Amino acid sequence: MNAQKTFLIFGGIGGIGGALSDILVAQGHHVMATTSKPEKNQQTSLAKEQVLTVDVRDHQSIRDAIALAGAKGLHGMAYCVGTIDIKPLARTTVEDLRNSLEINTIGAFIAIQTAAPILAQHLGAVVLFSSVAASRGFSNHSAIGTAKAAVEGLTRSIAAELAPKVRVNAIAPSLTDTPLAESMTKNQKMAEMIGAMHPLPRLGNAIEMAKAAAFLLSDDSAWMTGEILHIDGGRSHLEKNR
């Protein structure tokens, strides 16, 4: 059992981030979580003072959250905020691309840049989230594929720069059954069709991703940094049997 630590989870209410918050609390850790939708706070077991309202497009709100959460030290941070912007190239605007980069990549950059000095005091760990779309080319994924590929580059570059004081790893899921993906998973036939595209033919779930993130934040992964952990039913590297 790891000693009690303090963690900040961006997007820590609902979905993968919410599942991660629950796991860390169950392990006896102190968790601070952010949400962009404070009206949904009642869905968490965290106390009101543990939930911060943050719009990651507002960089100062990221910095303020880290200052508050890290006032007495910070051992780990997960950036579980993301978008799923899927549309044909001809309909994808520059603003769509900017928005995907701002939320998925730039917000993560600002968070790590701000938290790094605090995390370094505790040999801290960071977990980011990429996507199978960063390594597999999918139609209609130009904005999100670009943003998530940038997350992987960010992971490796910052892991190299911050070692050995701070570890930085990322998880690259395939489609996961979460509120963020509801537009694609609420239709059962569509969800089954997408699941069947994987060598392990189903969608991922939030608990699977959260358990992996908890591992990467823990001392059990103390010799891992700069890694992209693919949890995607084999879709990134394997050809499905016909």
In the CATH hierarchy, the architecture is: 3-Layer(aba) Sandwich
Main structural class: alpha/beta
Radius of gyration, in Å, reads 17 Å
CATH class: Alpha Beta
Q: What is the number of domains?
A: 1
Q: Please, how many helices?
A: 7
Contiguous runs where pLDDT drops below 50 for at least 5 residues: none
Helical content band: 25-40%
β-strand amount:
15-25%
Q: Write the element-wise H/E pattern from the N-terminal end onward.
A: EHEEHEHEHEEHHEHE
Number of β-strand runs: 9
Overall mean confidence score, pLDDT: 93
Looking at how many chains there are and whether they match, the oligomeric state comes to: single chain
CATH superfamily: NAD(P)-binding Rossmann-like Domain
**Coarse shape:** globular
Might you state the CATH topology name? Rossmann fold
Strand order of the largest sheet: 3-2-1-4-5-6-9
Topology:
Layout: E1 6-10, H1 15-26, E2 30-35, E3 51-53, H2 59-69, E4 76-79, H3 94-120, E5 125-129, H4 142-162, E6 167-173, E7 176-177, H5 182-185, H6 188-195, E8 204-205, H7 206-217, E9 228-231
Parallel strand pairs: 1-2, 1-4, 2-3, 4-5, 5-6, 6-9, 7-8
Helix pairs in contact: 1-7, 2-3, 3-4
